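Example A, followed by Example B.
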Amino acid sequence: MKVFGGSGRRRAGFGRVSETRKDAERRDGLDSADRGYRNGEPADIAAGQKTPGKKKGRGWLAALCVVVLIAAGVTIYWELTTKPPETVEAELPGKEENPVRVERYYTLLVVGDDQEGGNTDTIMLLRFDTAEMKVNVLSIPRDTLINSSLGNKKINAVYHNLDGIDSLLDAVRELTGYRPNNYMVVNTSVFTDVVDAMDGVDFYVPFDMDYDDYSNFDENGVARYVFTIHVTEGQQTLSGYDALGVFRWRQNNNSSGHVYLNPDIERIDMQHELLMAIAEKAMNTKNVLTLTDIAKAVLNQCQTDLSIGNIQWYIEQFLKMSMDSLEFFTMPTSGAWIKKAAYVTINVDAWIEMLNANFKITDRELTREDCGIVYVASPKDLVDGQLYVDPDELASTNGAAVDQYFVGP
């Protein structure tokens, strides 16, 4: 006789003739709540009839686990590698009593390298105050007059015509009284990649910008270097390439459309506005994967003495701040013509005041004598509103002789 739910046979080693249904279910690892299931699956699935979507759901779960593991790994990597850059004492050559660098300050020289033109047309000094959590950014005009052995004594000619970044750091030291702790020489690729990593930047373009640069033609008439700017007026989300165009724009082809009346200073003002928009977008970027991409883009496509951990540290500190913690300054200058070349000379008193108020990193205020600023010691009268200067009318604030070798256009 076969009992429902039993095997109908004697099990070896047992005196029972049959099992009850409940015993059989317990033997199979089931209880009364699991009836109709085998191995935790419905009977039709156990028989080979799979429920649609079950396998797909498990695939999504596996993908989610992979994403979580990657994000966790990146976060751990970020925490382990992030560290502040090393700092050095402020150095003022020839001074008997050097000022002492204050530990709260970090300084970084950021240079935009115009490789085709052979100049560094964007030079900015950043001072980060870790006590007040504030970043001050100084733009040094490209035509700033410095004391150098070059016939072209504009600061933007130093990098490619002397000893590279060391010479440029020394030139900045003469203007500020100290040598920046670190440097970063960036090219066009890093700018576009950073903006693209943030999915563009929202910005109001005040006027149409149209410029085409086709240079270095080969023997077949093909341009080796091409850079175009075509951005229309209005509020928009700029791609990395278009943001770079706005950043670099000086004038339209054939001088059509808008014209900067003071090209150096107005261009710097536009750059400051764009950098503020990029900074605001970056501060809202909390995704560690995006931040890591930005750090790697900067490190892989620029010349710098910062490690990726140092860059991550700067980003990490930056994200702790608000837009009120970021302020831009332009070095106070005046125009002058020397040997038919246009320069800007530093307004020494105004600059020393700005330096001590916003860019000092030492335990005492810096003086004119701490710097080696070239200025017009005995200016002549203006001619048609323009200041024409002879080389022998120039002097240096630290008393050093000014090199008299100048070349004109």
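Example B, a separate protein, is given below in the same form.
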Amino acid sequence: MKSKMPRIIMVIAVFIVIAYLANQAGDWIRDRLKMEITPKNKSIIFGATVFAVVLYALLISLPFVPGVEVGLGLMVTFGIPMAIPV
């Protein structure tokens, strides 16, 4: 019987590579947008927050969507004020 260890190592390596690439993509998007919360763009940030909360509500109502992870992502992205809507 063959050992499953090489396959397990390969799957873990693929997940690590995917996570790394997703992190790099997020950094790239952040650098391109260069969004900072200032009084000048306060309405844009508010609109993005409302959109994120509505999208979260729609996604959490679907079966098999990891709602906890989406909620944590919103709280990490938007900070403490997002904890109440989530």
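On Example B: Residues 5-33 form the longest helix (29 residues).
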